Amino acid sequence: MSLNEADPARLMRFVLELRQAGVTDRKTLAAMERTPRALFAPDHLSALALEDVALPLAHDQSLTKPSVVGRMIAALLLTGGELVLEVGTGSGYQTAALALMARKVTTLERHRPLVADARARFGGLRLMNVQAHVADGRAGWPDGAPYDRIIVNAAAESPPPALLDQLAPDGLLLMPTGARLDMRLMRFRKSAEAPEDLGRIDMPALQEGIAEE
Prior knowledge:
By secondary structure, this protein is α/β, with parallel strands linked by helices. It is 29% helix and 23% strand.
């Protein structure tokens, strides 16, 4: 699948809907426009790829709705030269968009089949600056540390200590915290005592370990 296969008018509406949902960062919108979401959606749901809806994936995972993806990517404040660690690859859509905005993306997923599928998609798109690993996201990926940005696509009461240890001194970590009914998107800076509250969000809980398929 290439971007040229998408209906230009529908793609334009997709970007407009992202703007209306509060995603206004120009670089984020450009990256999401260039990333063919249909490639990362289940085949039987590809017609819904340019709708602002979450889509179910195998292993009880989901393809996050685009407006949430855009909100989280924009909150990373990327300038183009960063090393990014992503926890929760899923199908790889957010990873692919991040790869267009950062120097390198290391992405972790606890489900082996999802990693295999994501790697194939990254190869098809020739995203040479992405490395996907099967790993426990709570432990991070020390071999690539320190990271300028860490993004966690699941919630916990607080950031896992291993992730904070792998964050660069001037880096930032983005993740949802709190219980499902009062979950907040928080931006942590290693150089700051208090995190920034970026508002309400709804994400699954961060799971421990590597899944047994």
